[in-house]
Design a protein that fits this description.
Order of helices and strands: HHHHH
Radius of gyration: 17 Å
Structural class: mainly alpha
Number of strands: 0
Shape: elongated
Length: about 140
């Protein structure tokens, strides 16, 4: 069951990140590397818990949000702003987990999954944005 659920999720993520890395500029390639690192390292952090709180996964989510927010503030890419917003939504679910409300467990998991899917969709927009900005820069005549 688990492979059946995660296979399309991982295939879509891999295709979106490959598109971002191949079609975007330097910012997009760095973003693709960051997302790939989080995607590959999160299962390794999954077992690190304090009680039932998965502190290492929450910390990786916080780091991803901080890097996306920093990128959104320092680079001229809209996709970073939207991705940071989706990551903030996923990060908030870790705060709810600290409250130990067991009735919201599947809600939190669903929000994390959907926010990741939204971020991968935003990554596709980021690939287009990086491609379009590089094309505009090539077509613009040099300043006199």
């Amino acid at each position: 069951m688990q492979a059946f659920v995660f296979a399309p999720f991982n295939i879509f993520s891999a295709m979106a990140l490959a598109t971002l890395a191949l079609c975007g500029g330097r910012v997009e390639r760095a973003g693709a590397a960051l997302f790939a690192a989080v995607l590959l390292l999160t299962p390794l952090f999954d077992g690190l818990t304090i009680g039932t709180f998965r502190w290492a996964v929450a910390l990786s989510s916080l780091v991803l949000f901080a890097v996306l927010l920093w990128g959104a503030m320092t680079r001229d890419r809209w996709w970073l702003v939207f991705a940071a917003g989706c990551q903030l939504m996923a990060l908030s679910t870790h705060l709810v987990a600290l409250l130990r409300v067991d009735s919201l467990l599947w809600t939190m998991v669903s929000i994390r999954w959907f926010s990741w899917l939204f971020m991968m969709t935003i990554v596709l927009f980021g690939a287009w944005e990086g491609w379009a900005l590089s094309r505009i820069a090539r077509q613009r005549p040099p300043a006199a």
